[in-house]
Amino acid sequence: MAVQTVQNVPAQFIQDIGKDLAKQITAQSGVPVVSTGIAGISQQPGESADDFAARQQAAREFTTRQQSLSGLAPTVAGQDPLQQQAQTLATQGVGSFAPFLQQAQAAGTAAGTALGGVGLGATAFQQDVQDFMSPYQSQVIDATLAEFDRNRAIQEQGIRDQQAALGALGSGRAGVQLAEFGTGAARERALLQAGLLQQGFGQAQAARQQDIANRGALASQQLGLGQFQSGLGQTQQAATATDISRLGQLGALNQAQAQAQLDAQREAARQATFLPQEQLDRFAGQVTGLMGGYPAQTQQTVTPNPTPLQTALGVGTTLAGIYGALGEGARAFKGLPSFKAEGGRAGYKDGTDKEGIMKMADIDPLKDEYDQYVFDLLEQRPDATPMTFEEFKRMVLSGQG
């Protein structure tokens, strides 16, 4: 089998660039990835001295790249003045409602202390009324009765003086008059005392009723204070929720600010870490573009070896052609008819082909090719069955027809 290979290679400078790229890629693949300075690494258990030295060298190179890239490191803007003002206001607003709530609670406690219980029943009623009696009522009654008694004594003395002037003093009629006057005076004195007592009781009862009304008003005020405190509690909850929301928003803002700073630091470290790989990738992309303009081509042409039969038929056909040409020349020289007669057979003037048959038997150029065909076939395929010599010769001669 014949194989022909043709290669069209790029220009020499393209080949040199490709070799240099391959060397750099191979060298870079062996460099460990380190994202910290020399102070941030230490030899790990089981790590060889060579591997640790390689990591130390990578750490030093990382520090160098980080310093070289400091002007390209990402930065994060600080808080806006409006954000700082909002944070200050939110901080001041936390707990600002507490004094109002404390004052409301103190007022409610004082109102509850001032409001006492109201007794029920006759005994409690009498006791409550007695509590409202004027402490000077007895003195007022005594002074009033004393004044009544003084006036009665004056009136009684006037009656006696009148009886004495009439000369009836000591008589029975005078005694009756004095007795009647004393009875009426005593009755009036009792009525006066009862009226004074009743008046005092009525005043005490009215004071008690007023006290109950006042207590009811205080109870209403206490209820209002309770409702007010409940409202303050709800206000406190709402204010607390507002504070939590504001603080949460500010916390999220501060968290985002801190996260942005961490992201910037991480991005700066990533740039310093993978700068060699990124430079190599850019170089590889440029080299690939150059090599794309100078593509290498390889062409192969494969010619399969002929089979034993094809070889034998080819050679046999050639020999048969030569043999046929020789036979035609001999017959032309002797004045004989053409070798190609009817049916492709040679004939003589007398109509026989004895001479041609004898010559074919004496010299048969196809016999050697037939033997070679059989040898090659059995060498390649020992189990194959070769065709007969007559079949082989017939195939060769049919190709000459």
> Compute the gyration radius: what is it?
72 Å
Give the termini distance in whole angstroms. Answer: 31 Å
| Main pleated sheet | 2 strands, antiparallel
Number of helical elements: 11
Summed over residues and divided by their number, the pLDDT gives a mean of 75
Work out the strand percent.
under 5%
Helix share, percent:
over 70%
Count of all domains: 3
Listing every helix as H and every strand as E from the N terminus to the C terminus, the arrangement reads: EHHHHHHHEHHHH
Low-confidence stretches: 329-354, 357-363
- What characteristic shape results from the CA principal axes? rod-shaped
Record field, number of beta strands: 2
- Spatial ordering of strands, largest sheet: 1-2
Structural class per helix/strand content? Answer: mainly alpha
Describe the 3D structure.
There is one protein chain. The two termini are 31 Å apart. The longest helix is centred in the middle third of the chain and has 122 residues. Helix 3 packs antiparallel against helix 7 and helix 8 packs antiparallel against helix 10. A two-stranded antiparallel ribbon has the order 1-2. The chain has 401 residues and is mostly helical. It is built from eleven helices and two strands. Helix content is 73%, strand content 3%. It has three domains: 38 residues; 203 residues; 93 residues, no CATH class. It is rod-shaped and about 225 Å long. The relative contact order is 0.10.
